[in-house]
Inverse folding.
């Protein structure tokens, strides 16, 4: 089945720092989403980005489907950015989302 | 607009019991999916329903079942609970089968 790997697994930043999270996948995709899971477990939609680049405030994402990776950029990080970041995508022809291994981010004040 | 709502938010059950979890999708969304997330891991797909029909099933035992109602809300049932069923159960709503998914806040199930 499709493999979805994220790096780094853990990341500690000082408030105000920038970071790049990576998602590698082993098969072609039609959909790809980035989520932030807060400490209460809520999965918050960040981007729906099967290809191309999108920006939303301090966050932006780029998916290069032909090279099978996606990047999430966080600029000027804040303590509220702490949590786990997941990329998720469905294997071709299926409806189920396969979640990546996650990146656990901690932003220190 | 209300987001995806799940109930209850927390639940404690005893081994062998049965549990029913509920999900109301975003208004206008016809697809509901269920995921299980155990501590320290990413969510794992259990079921997807679209227009009241099952469209996909993950690698879970037959103790897990679900259904979707005419108003597109959904229930997940788990019979003969095991300690290993303790997890966060997440419901996702989407307009169709291959479109962006939006998740509820989850139901945290503890089996003792």
């Amino acid at each position: 089945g499709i493999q979805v790997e994220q790096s780094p697994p853990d990341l500690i930043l000082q408030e105000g720092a920038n970071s790049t999270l990576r998602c590698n996948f082993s098969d072609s995709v039609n959909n790809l989403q980035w989520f932030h899971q807060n400490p209460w477990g809520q999965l918050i939609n960040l981007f729906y980005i099967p290809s191309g680049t999108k920006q939303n405030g301090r966050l932006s994402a780029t998916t290069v489907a032909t090279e099978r990776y996606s990047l999430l950029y966080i600029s000027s990080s804040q303590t509220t950015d702490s949590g786990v970041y997941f990329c998720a995508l469905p294997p071709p022809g299926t409806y189920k989302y396969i979640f990546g291994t996650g990146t656990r981010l901690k932003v220190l004040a | 607009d209300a987001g995806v709502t799940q109930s209850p938010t927390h639940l404690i059950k005893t081994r062998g019991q049965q549990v029913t979890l509920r999900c109301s999708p975003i208004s206008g969304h016809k697809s509901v999916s269920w995921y299980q997330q155990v501590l320290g891991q990413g969510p794992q797909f259990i079921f997807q329903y679209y227009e009241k029909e099952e469209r996909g099933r993950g690698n879970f035992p037959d103790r897990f079942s679900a259904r979707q109602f005419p108003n597109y809300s959904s229930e997940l049932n788990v019979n003969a609970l095991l300690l290993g069923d303790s997890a966060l159960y997440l419901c996702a709503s989407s307009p169709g089968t291959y479109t962006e998914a939006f998740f509820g806040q989850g139901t945290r199930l503890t089996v003792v």
